[in-house]
Amino acid sequence: MGGPEVERLIGLLAKLPGMGPRSARRAALKLLQQPEGRMLPLATALADAARAVKACGICGNLDSQDPCTVCSDPHRDRSVICVVEGVGDLWALERASVHRGVYHVLGGTLSALSGVGPEDLNVTSLLARVQAGGVTEVILALGATVDGATTAHWLTDRLRPSGVAVTRVAQGVPIGGALDVLDDGTLAAALRARRA
Amino acid sequence: MGGPEVERLIGLLAKLPGMGPRSARRAALKLLQQPEGRMLPLATALADAARAVKACGICGNLDSQDPCTVCSDPHRDRSVICVVEGVGDLWALERASVHRGVYHVLGGTLSALSGVGPEDLNVTSLLARVQAGGVTEVILALGATVDGATTAHWLTDRLRPSGVAVTRVAQGVPIGGALDVLDDGTLAAALRARRA
Q: A52, A161, B51, B136: least CB-packed within 10 angstroms?
């Protein structure tokens, strides 16, 4: 319905994460009912962001400036690098305002199953940043998955010669989480890492 | 995160039906990772659709041609007009391919609570279409709500002098629906409208 332009728009909207064919149709209809107020501003915002945003040459963050807002902030502690899998993880940590150092985006995790090797990740640039000096700690904030753990182990081995402290984010019961709904792996990790 | 262009994009995406701040952020991130492959095509599709799509001068459907695809189709039965609340209802009926006549989009229902009166709906154009002749039946395909029923009653009164048959879509148990999960109103309507 609505002609080829609308079908094309619905097809593209349906590919967004969290959207499907039905919600894409609803969204398209909503937009079409306010072409000036909603649709053209969204088209402009998409084109603007696509033109403005690029990957930071230092850490790999996506930002409209290069170096990114974090890397160019004089108040950030450059001696602590937090290594994350993707830009989404970096944004989540920034939203929580829990890290005052800088970041490094790996761009994935090692995965034998998906054929992701060290050469597919931004490892060389991380080692170069550490070897350039001034770094005292590398925090590995990788997911608590098999691939995340493999990558963390492998990175720890690679970083050891440089002498920096390599730490990993804690695993355990999420804040606000009830014990009875947690999986066995999390319960075991939380019990093992118990503190006085 | 990501600069003002990204924040603006997230804000606009979050207003789409079915999206919220979190899913908008995820969608923006996904788009930013493929600016050429996903983001610019979506921007173009939005601008194209906004430019191409307009309301049909006859029925009120949204389409890239005016009169719309339905109204300009020579195979449609112009003697049966199906009256719907919104364009989304029209599209749903078209997807199901259950109506071979034409449509009329009211643009809402009468609602004392929201202050929607007859002058806010496309009623004059509907009466004009019926009075122009050639119409034998008007099907009221309005929602089974209080406002939908009020509007149907009111429209039936207005259409009676013209002599056309005014029918309403049946209410009852939805196909594939189990009786025990249905509300009392639907059960009562289904029982009342029982057939041999």
A: A161
